[in-house]
Design a protein that fits this description.
Shape: globular
CATH class: Mainly Beta
Protein name: Pyridoxamine 5'-phosphate oxidase family protein
Pfam families: Pyrid_ox_like
CATH architecture: Roll
CATH topology: Pnp Oxidase, Chain A
Order of helices and strands: HEEEEHEEHHEHE
Largest sheet: 8 strands, antiparallel
InterPro entries: Split_barrel_FMN-bd, Stress-Dev_Protein, YdaG_split_barrel_FMN-bd
Structural class: alpha+beta
Domain General stress protein FMN-binding split barrel: 3-148
Strand content: 35-45%
């Protein structure tokens, strides 16, 4: 795995949530993701009654997931194909206390729906964190140079 890919997956795994939306609607909602770098996918646990799930019932659609974390030093726009999944084994693997908080009957709740995002590409900004950012801003004021806020790269999956 290239350094950029490794940086992306390592940092993404430590981020809890982002904003997910279908490109056709441009409406974004906060969602928790579960990274699966073995297959270049993100997984989401949501409810069957949501607009997202209703939209995906007719088939896969292109979507965008946006993450932003100063703590992890990752800002990314991630694109891919979203589709519903009935993979119970994957749901078993992903299920946790956070997911169970949303469903009255836990994992067996009939409203639980798994969504898979097969990644196509990502535009990524990787920084050294907020202290480094502040240092770079202060240094630029003294030296007159532009601050070095980290790496900017694109990934294709």
């Amino acid at each position: 795995m290239s350094d950029n890919r490794e940086t992306f997956w390592d940092r993404l795994e430590d981020i809890n949530a982002g904003m997910l939306g279908l490109n056709a609607t441009a409406r974004f909602l906060p969602m928790s993701h579960y990274a699966d770098d073995d297959i270049n996918a993100l997984w989401f646990i949501t409810a069957k009654g949501t607009e997202l799930v209703k939209s995906l019932q007719s088939g896969a659609q292109e979507g965008t997931y946006i993450v932003s974390s100063a703590k992890e030093g990752l800002y990314a726009r991630i694109a891919g194909s979203l589709e519903l999944s009935d993979d119970r084994e994957k749901l078993d693997d992903l299920w946790n206390a956070i997911a169970s908080s949303w469903f009255e009957d836990g994992q067996q709740d009939p409203d639980v729906q798994l969504v898979r995002m097969s990644l196509s590409d990502a535009e990524v900004w990787a920084t050294d964190g907020s202290l480094s950012f502040l240092y770079e801003i202060a240094k630029s004021k003294i030296s007159g140079s532009k601050p070095d806020i980290g790496d900017h790269f694109s990934l294709t999956f």
